[in-house]
Design brief:
Elements lengths: L2 E5 L4 H13 L4 E8 L2 E12 L4 E2 L5 E3 L3 H15 L26 H5 L20 H9 L18 H13 L3 H13 L15 E2 L15 H8 L4 H7 L13 H5 L8 E2 L1 H12 L7 H8 L3 E3 L9 E3 L27 E4 L5 E5 L4 E7 L10 H13 L3 E2 L5 E2 L1
Parallel strand pairs: 5-6
Antiparallel strand pairs: 1-3, 2-3, 2-12, 3-4, 5-7, 8-9, 10-11, 11-12, 13-14
Length: 402
């Protein structure tokens, strides 16, 4: 498999693992980018972007990075907080008065960012294409009753996060989420990174390849097992009441790519992810150093997420390193970072993060999804190679430390 791009000789192990992903781990098309001290030390891509047409993964190939989008949305909120325009510790109703309905007047902005607001899904069936109408989704969520007392439980807002946080950003920042991100992040940093992809870039998108279904008797993520086993469960509503968005192939539609979905809709590549986190790895840039510290600090943690049913740890809007290796099957996928790092993974294995201590930013994107909801062996192997090169060691089965 031909690998293209650049790799500093000191980080040769990263290129070795990238090549092994194709040779041994089933990678189809992918990109990885690493910056240290603000300098790009790895920028590699290779494989096939579209197995149907045989199109190669090129330098400018972009793709769907799923929940890595949440990191971009959270960054927008922290930019407003850093400027003093948004207080993360006040009720959402200060900025979004209609949100007070059904007992939500005490929900804080920080609850939206830490998945503790109790709004991971909607109870009433959504019409086809509902996720492509941001205003309608915000209105539906404003009128929804929480599934638990806000602040008392943590449950991954897998698909609602972007409408909740995005509407606060729109109210405070005066622009839609996609426009705010373009104006304040992607544009100034020169990133090929979109929340709401323009038509002119559609031909460069690598279609998503879903993970193969589990073999008979093989374990599946507990989220799916709970959803299929109890149609009335929160898990079933999270993945089943999406207006058709999770129907196979729908996420690759033009309507999906064009929509401003701040939880799952971003289109970029490893270079875009690493580029977004680069200034944060250097201590700020887009936000103040004090705000960067807030972004990196654990704000919520649980041994059993109310939606995912696995341990999770969160900063405000960002994933913190989590070791779930003691679990079975796809649930064992965690995100094995250092304790100082923060970022976000995407369904199937994409990842972007910043680690301010080694001044590291990292981005990985691919088209073939893995079976779990965390980072699978392909992305983890690349991260591990970076951390080893930087002199980090790994606790038994767990996170990296100096």
């Amino acid at each position: 498999m031909a690998i293209h791009g650049i790799c500093d000789a000191r980080y040769a192990e990263v290129q070795d693992e990238f090549e092994r992903n194709f040779e041994e781990r089933g990678e189809v098309g992918a990109s990885v980018c690493v910056t240290v001290d603000g300098e790009t030390v790895v920028d590699l891509w290779g494989g096939t972007a579209d197995p149907v047409t045989g199109a190669e993964w090129r330098q400018d190939t972009i793709g769907h990075v799923w929940s890595c989008t949440k990191g971009a949305t959270a960054l927008c909120a922290h930019i407003l907080a850093s400027r003093g325009d948004l207080d993360l510790n006040v009720p959402v109703v200060k900025y979004w008065p209609e949100f007070a309905a059904k007992g939500k007047d005490a929900i804080l902005v920080r609850h939206l960012l830490t998945h503790t607001a109790g709004l991971p899904a909607l109870r009433e069936p959504l019409p086809d294409g509902a996720f492509y109408d941001f205003a309608a989704m915000a209105g539906r969520l404003a009128d929804e009753e929480p599934f638990w007392e806000p602040g008392t439980r943590q449950g991954y807002h897998a698909l609602t996060f972007g409408f909740l946080v995005g509407e606060v950003i729109r109210r405070v920042g005066g622009r839609t989420l996609g426009t705010f991100f373009r104006d304040e992040v992607a544009g100034p940093l020169g990133l090929d990174f979109w929340i709401g992809l323009p038509q002119e870039y559609e031909e460069r998108v690598a279609p998503t390849i879903p993970a193969p279904p589990p073999a008979p008797g093989a374990p599946m993520p507990t989220l799916y097992r709970n959803a299929f086993g109890d149609p009335s469960s929160i898990a079933a509503l999270v993945i089943g009441n999406t207006g058709g968005y999770l129907t196979p192939g729908e996420s690759d539609s033009r309507a999906a790519h064009a929509a401003e979905m701040g939880a799952v809709g971003a289109i970029t590549n490893g270079r875009g992810l690493a580029g977004m986190y680069r200034p944060l790895a250097l201590g700020g840039g887009l936000v103040s150093p004090d705000q960067t510290a807030v972004m990196a600090s654990v704000a919520a943690a649980t041994q059993s997420d109310a939606v995912l049913s696995v341990p999770t740890r969160w900063a405000m809007g960002f994933v913190k390193g989590t070791d779930n290796g003691h679990l079975r099957g796809p649930d064992a996928e965690g995100v094995l970072l250092s304790e100082d790092a923060f970022g976000h993974s995407g369904m199937g294995g994409s990842l972007g993060f910043a680690d301010p201590v080694p001044r590291l930013s990292f981005g990985y994107s691919m088209n073939l999804q893995g079976p779990g909801l965390g980072v699978n062996e392909r992305g983890q192997a690349l991260m591990n190679a970076v951390y080893r090169t930087l002199g980090y060691r790994q606790a038994y089965g767990g996170l990296w430390y100096l």
